Amino acid sequence: MTQLLLRFGLVINLLGFAMIAILYVLLSRAYHADQQEEIQTVSKVVLEAMASSHKASQTVEHLIDIHLQTVSKEIAERLKGRSLDAISLQELLDLKKTYDLAGISLFVRKGDDIVIAKSTDIHELGLSAKSWGYWFTAFQQLMNREQVTVEKGYRSDHFWVGPISKSEWEQRYYKYAYYFDGSSPFMINPYMDAEKVYQLSIESGPNQLIEQISRESALIDRIAVVNVPAFLKGADNQVIEPENDLPVLYGTLDPDLPENGKLLEEAWRTKQMQSIRFEREGKVKNSIYLALPQNRVMVFTTDLTKQEAERTQLITVMIAGQCLSMLLLFVIFHAVTKRQLRPLMQMADHISRVSDGDLTQTLRIHENNEWDQLAEKISQMTEKMRQLILQIKKEIHSLHVLSSLLSQRVYASINSMNTRSLLMTEESKALLVELDACGETIQEYVQAATKLLQQGEWSPADLAALEESVGAMGNKVQQLSALSHSHAGNLVNLSIAFHDSLSELSGIIDNIDHLTEELKEKIGMFRLGE
Predict the structure, then answer these.
(1) Residue 70: CA atoms inside 13 Å, Cβ hemisphere, count?
(2) 243 and 190, same domain (yes or no)
(3) Residues 461, 375 share a domain
(4) What phi and psi values does residue 17 have, to the nearest 5 degrees?
């Protein structure tokens, strides 16, 4: 029963722990699904904020573009027909102040290059535009009085304004406009301070939302929107146009995670979500990389410490509950099975005694169920075995008695036969001795007669008759002697043959006795209560 309980408990325990493992997997999947759902929701909110911010900044930028276009036309009207030398620095400063500009520069052709010939900022004098990429393309098209085809920025007749850009010589962002209608030998470049617009489009709206989410979310620790091509340039990256050149457009990125570059590039190229799990300052964290349009990747750094603690606590409670329930179940099962399996134990004990040869006991189980019926059948079987073995013992005793009587009779017959044979042999020997004596007497008588005859007292006829009579008697005596000798030999041979047969019969009886003793020894182990 103990083994049965142990096996049952082991099976139940294994099933319980299997259920805990399944619940752990399901719980992990539920946590993961909740995490993915929250990340998807937050990413949509951030994307909407980015779109709203971008739309607002584009609106503001467009207003600035229209304003710069109007200012450029007015400045061109004032400087119309004048040479570059006729325009003084003070005049440019006055125009700057009049139109509330950050500065004004005048571009002229110089060979295959376009350079700044005059400017309100002395740091910009002599700057070459040849290496400015699509900006230089737009400059050439303007000064060739062609329609500007550059997709970036805002374009109109004789006018183009680029996106917000950082100054070549200071860490500030400006909105640069360019106007050339051919009425003057130079291209007019008024520009305005765009820090506020930059803050509106880059540093304010989405960043404030990201900070709020990071503060209020129990899962999300930080969020970053990364410009992957700019990020992958590393230290070689130069920020000219924030929208295109800033590595991290919104939020903050964990700078101490060396796998950032690899995972950002993988998510960017495959358009599939990537993730990495790591520990930082005793906390379990997970970074998730979600691909966005326009070469962007949104990075979520989640803090799984609380989640892992809750999951560990839950699993600990489940395991403790499993162990407690197993202990309680074992106690209950032990009590119940001890009561229910008591008849089985009694049967096992009874069968054990029967196997040891004790057939004197009777199995009694007072249960009004199948155990009672089974016990009755076992008792009946035990009683039948006892009666059968008793009958066998009786038969063996009868066989033993019969064998003893047969043995006694055989030995008695052998002794009688031996006695009779010896007696016949002695009688034959006596008869032969008498015959031999008679023959000797007759021989002496014949010799005496012969002597008398020689002396003349017997006639020859009498002698012949006597010799004939004596010869006949001698022949008969010889025949009788031969017959006696033959009878004695046959009787001896018959005695020997009968003795051999009786010896074989005695051996058979001995074998019966030996087998009887062996059978008695084998059934002797059974206690029958006779």
Answers:
(1) 8
(2) no
(3) yes
(4) -70, -30
3-class secondary-structure state, position 127: coil
Q: Are 510 and 403 a contacting pair, CB within 8 Å?
A: no
65 and 128 housed in the same domain = yes
**Cα separation, 366 vs 457, whole angstroms:** 125
Q: For residues 360 and 363, give the distance between their C-alpha atoms in angstroms, rounded to a whole number.
A: 10
Q: How far is CA 469 from CA 56, 86, 94, 211, 472, in A?
A: 184, 214, 210, 172, 5
What the block records as the tokens of 467 is: 């010799």
Does the pLDDT value for residue 482 go beyond 60?
A: yes
**Amino acid identity for residue 444 in this structure:** E
Residue 1 has pLDDT above 60, yes or no: no
User: Cα–Cα distance between 527 and 389 in angstroms, integer?
Assistant: 10
User: Amino acid letter at 67?
Assistant: H
Averaged pLDDT of the chain: 80
pLDDT at 460 (0 to 100): 65
pTM: 0.54
pLDDT at 425: 64
Q: Kindly report which listed range (144-148, 273-277, 332-336, 525-529) carries the lowest average pLDDT score.
A: 525-529
Q: What is the CATH number of the domain that holds 80?
A: 3.30.450
Tokens representing 317 are 């409670």
- CA torsion sign for 378, 380, 381, 382 is positive
Q: Is 158 found in the same domain as 91? A: yes
The better pLDDT of the pair 364, 464 is held by 364
